[in-house]
Structure formats: structure tokens, C-alpha cells
Amino acid sequence: MRMLLKLAWRNVWRNRLRSVIIAAAVAIGLWAALFLMAFYYGMIAQRVETVIQEESSHLQLHAPGFLADLEPRLHLHDADEVAATIRQRPAVRQVAPRVIVQGMLMSAAGSAGVRCSGVEPAAEDSTTHLSGKLVEGSYFDPAKKNGILISMQQAKKLKLKLRSKVVLMAQDTTGEITSGAFRVQGIYRTINTPYDEMNVFITRSAAAELLGVPGACHELAVVLRANDAIATEKASLQQRFPAIEVKDWMETNPEAELMVTSFDSMMLVFTLIIFLGLAFGLLNTMLMAVLERTREIGMLVSIGMGRVRLFVMILLETLMVSLVGCPVGLGLALLTIGYAQRHGIDLRAFAEMGSSFGFDLVVHPAITARHVWNILVLVFSTALLSAAYPAAKALTIKAAEAIRK
Question: For 290, which of 2, 139, 151, 343 is 20 to 30 Å away at the CA?
Fold first, then answer.
């Protein structure tokens, strides 16, 4: 085996330019795959963090069947006592009670279907940082009972501004149509356009009064201190409150769940495209190297080199070239990913497209050891598969004919 390694290493550098080109191709392929994976992983990780911290929270508690139809009558009983109990848990950072109302927001210029959340201002702000999203106006003022927060998208559509009067029409718990008048107290904007188009906020007391049920609560949004406690806390809360549905952020946000679950499949497609190009380059180069050395290979066979050892020698040559390119590609990838992670990749030129899906406009790539390992395995698998055909071609060379050439 030592002789094969020495012979393969010498063969690699007999044509330095060709070997350097192959090593460079491996390095560029590895860098491209790792950087692309880090970019998409970072983008999705940021989106997930936004969903958890600013939209859905880690866990949500509802009355059974509420999420299916958002029926106003399906509110939580003893919601304040349940919220107080959950707040005492060490893993819980905050609990925000909400009244959820599906209705119609109307102004003199038109109307729009909305999801209205009746919130407790302090608890909601510490859960979703709602006050930090305001671009005009102010957060809820306890002295102003009928204030409403709308999005910039809704303000443009309904031609609203601060202190404009709007009417919110919805069904109460008995199925009757009810309505309430509100004044625009603040206008907010997030990075998620579909979210902005649908959501408005009023106080919990105003929403409960609109439904005719004082103290009503449809949803308890639970924010945990760490993401890795989601499964444990979900199971524990479900056991503690068996009459209440406990769902995590993926169950309450199917779009985000689909994005996360499809990440590995999507990245597999992209990396396979990159390495398919690399495979053709390696195969073509190694096949040319074998055909150029037909006489030499015939000599090796004639002096007793077995077919298995000849096959292994060709594979070793390809692996050695890959081993030269991998450290360069890996180092380049880690440097560029580290730089982009610190400074971010500005995508504000694609702001409209990004906001349609709720993605941050400055992406900070991120990568894990598992991703690096998977790509390295794919690199060496590509190298071996690419060398298989040239090595098999070398086995078809007949020693007597090759020597006479």
C-alpha cells in the first residue's frame, strides 16, 4: 500500500498545471457549496427567530378547536390564572394573553379583512416588541381606550393617518354582528408584508368589550428563555393543562414549518448541481490522464501489477488531488462565511421580494459542523465516483498492445 501511495503521489505532480487546476476546481466547488449552504441556513434561521420572537412566540395555548375556525365563543376559561401559573415556570420568560377577532376594518376610503389581536400592552411589548415596530404615532396609551395600531400597508390601502377614525366589524360570541369605533394611535411596519396586511392591534379590554365577554382570552403566547426547551415545555404544559391545546411555533405557523423541513432537500438539490459540474470536470481530467499513460500502464501490468492495485492507484490519485483542494476550499469558505456573518449580506436591493416572504434584508450566514461534514463527505464521494470510470478504463488496457505503442 505504501508503494501505491508513493506512486500515486508522484503521478499527481507529473503534470503540475493539470493537478493544480483540478485542486482549484475542488476548492471552488467546496467553497461554493459551503457558502451557499451557510447563506440559506442563516436566512432561514433568522426567519425562524423572527417568527418566534415577533409573530408566533415559542408556544401558544388555545381552547380545543379554536385554531381551526377562530370561533369567538371558544375562549379560554380562567386564562389569567393559567397565565400566572405558566409565568412561574423557570423556563418561561413571558406570557401574553390575547383576544383574537376576525373582522373587517372599514374607513371612508374602503375596507379590508383583518385579524385583530386584543393585547395587554406591557405583556405584548415584552413578548413581540410591538412598540419597536412603530414608524408613526405612539404605543397604547392607557388613557385612550379605543386606540388601534395598524400597519403601513393598511394605512396606504385605506388612506389612513394618525387619529383617523376606523370601524372594526366582527361577530360576537353569539354569532351576531358587532362593531366598534377606533382611532389610529400608531402605524407599524415589519419585514413581513403578508403579516402587515392582515394584523391590527387593540387593547384586550376593548376586544373583550367588542365580543361582549369581559375578561375574554383566546390565546396565551408563551416565550421561553431558550429555543431548546420547546419540546420539554410543550409536553409539560400539555400534561399540566389537559383541557387546553398547546402548540409550538411550527404548528401555529405552517409556512415556517414547511420552510424549515424543506431546507435539507433544497440544499441537497443545489449542492448536487454544484458537484455534478465538479464530477464531470474530474472525470474528464482523470480519463485524459489515463489515456496519456497507456504505455506506462501497460508496462505496470506486464511487470505484475494486479488489476485491483491498478484500480486503487487511479482512485488514490483523484483522492490526493481532492485532499490538496479541500483545505484551501474549506479555509476560504470559513473565512468568507465568518466575514459575512459579522458584517451581513445586504439584500435591500431585493426588499420587495424579501418582505413578501418575511425574510430579513441583511442576512448573516451561519453554518454548523454537521453541514461542513456532509459537504466534505459529498466532495470525496464525488471524487471517488468520478475516478471510477477512468480507473475501469485503465483495466481494459492490454499490456502487449500498450507497450508496442
Answer: 2
- Identify the three-state secondary structure at position 72: coil
Q: What is the pTM of this model?
A: 0.77
CA 135 to chain centre: 27
pLDDT tens-digit readout, 302-346: 666 666 777 777 777 777 788 888 899 999 999 999 999 998 888
CB 258 within 8 A of CB 103: no
Residue 359 neighbours by CB under 8 Å, 6+ apart: 43, 46, 47, 191, 347
Distance from chain centroid for Cα 179: 39
What is the chain's mean pLDDT, rounded?
A: 84
Could you give the CA distance from residue 24 to residue 135 in angstroms, rounded to a whole number? 50
Report whether 110 contacts 158 (CB < 8 A).
yes
Name the residue among 54, 404, 30, 396 with its Cα closest to residue 196.
54
> In the chain, what is the greatest distance between 2 CA atoms, to the nearest angstrom?
102
CA distances (Å), 322 to each of 26, 100, 185, 340, in order? 6, 58, 63, 26
Instruction: Give the chain's end-to-end CA distance (angstroms, integer).
Output: 29
Pick the closest to residue 335 from 46, 59, 27, 72 (CA basis). Answer: 27
Nearest one of 121, 162, 118 to 141, comparing CA atoms? 121
Distances (CA, A) of 206 to 119, 175, 177, 329: 9, 18, 16, 59
Residue 97 contacts residue 123 (beta carbons within 8 Å): yes
Distance CA 126, CA 129 (A): 6
